[in-house]
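User: Please run a holo structure prediction.
Assistant: Happy to. Please share the sequence and the ligand.
User: Here you go; the ligand is FNR.
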Amino acid sequence: MNLHSHRKDEHVMIAEKLYRKKSSNGLEGVRLIPANLPEISLDEVSLSTTLAGKKIEAPFFINAITGGSETTDRLNEKLAMAAAATGLAMAVGSQSIALKDPAFARGFERLRSINQDGIMLANLGAGHPLKNAEQAVRMISADALELHLNAAQELVMPEGDSSFYWLDNLVELKKCLNVPVLIKEVGSGMTPQTLKILAENNFSYVDLAGSGGTNFAAIENERRKGKETLSFMQELGLTTAETLLGARKHERELHGLALTASGGIRNAEDIVKCLVLGAENVGISGMFLHVLIKDGTDGLIERIEELKLGVRTLMALLGCRTVSELKKTQVILSGELKNTVEQL
Ligand code: FNR
C-alpha cells in the first residue's frame, strides 16, 4: 500500500483509539449564566452564522478529517452524506496525497457529487505553492480553502518536515486565490501573537484549533515505532478556551478577524460557550469521526440534529435570538482560567 495512504488510515485508527483519553479543552472553566427573564420563544432562535464569509445554517461544521485511501474515502463519503442531509458545512482532510498521485483525487472529487449544494472547504498544508492550492480548490469546487499550520505534528511525525517558513507563502496564496482562505491550527491553539500577525497581513478567517481534543503529537508518537517517544510534545499548546479568551483580550488589534473555534468539542454546551467567547462558528472533527465509526451515517445525522436542538435550547435559555447576540452575554471564568488569560 502507498505509504501516504497508510498514514491516513493510521491517523483515523489512532485518533479513534485515543478518543476516550480526552484532555481538557478548558471550557469547563467557563460558566454560562441563564436568563431568568429570557423574553423569547424557542422558534425565534436563529442558528445561522457565517464561515469563511459564507452563510451557514448551523453554527458548527464538520472540520477537516481525512481522505486519500480506500477506507478513508468511504468515511469521507459518509461525512459528505451527513453534511448534505443536515445542511452542515464540511471541510475535507488534507488533499496533498491527491496532488502527488492523481488516482487519489477521485475520492475527493466524488464528495462534491454527494454534497452538491453544500458549503465545502478544501484543505492543504501551509507550505504548498499556488498551483497546488488552486488544484485542491478545483478538485471539490470548494467554497473556501483551509491551510493548516501543524509544526508540532510534523516534528513528532517520524517522516515529518523539519523546516517551517510559511508566512510569506500564506500571504501569496491569500493574494492570488479567488476563494476565501482560512488559516487553521490542528490542535496546538493559535496564540494572540499569531493572530496579530495574521490580522496585520490582512487575513480574515482563522480556526483557533485549541488543545483538548484530537492531539496530533500524541497520534504521531503512537506512530514512532522503534524511535524515542517525544511525549512532552503532547502536553503543549493553548486550550480551546484559552485561545478564545486570548483572542478576545486582544480583539482590538485583530481588526475583525473572524474566528472558528475547535478542539475537543463534544456537546451543545461546548459549542455555545465558544460562540459566547467570540467564535463565529465551531469546527468538530474527532467527535464526528467517533460517532460515524460507532453509529454509522444515520447515527451521525441524528447526533447533528440533537446538537442543533441543544444549541437552540441553550440560546433560548440565555435569551439570545442570534449567534451575534450570544457574544454580549456574560460568563463566569474559573480562577485558573482567569489567571492564565492575564498572562496572554
Ligand atoms: C484531523 N485534522 C486535520 N486537520 C487538517 O487541517 N488537515 C488534515 O488532514 C487533518 N487530518 C485529521 C485527521 C484526523 C483523523 C482527525 C481526527 C483530525 C485536525 C482537525 O481538523 C482538528 O483541527 C483537530 O482534530 C481538533 O479538533 P477535534 O478533533 O478535537 O474536534
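Residues 286-317 form the longest helix (32 residues).
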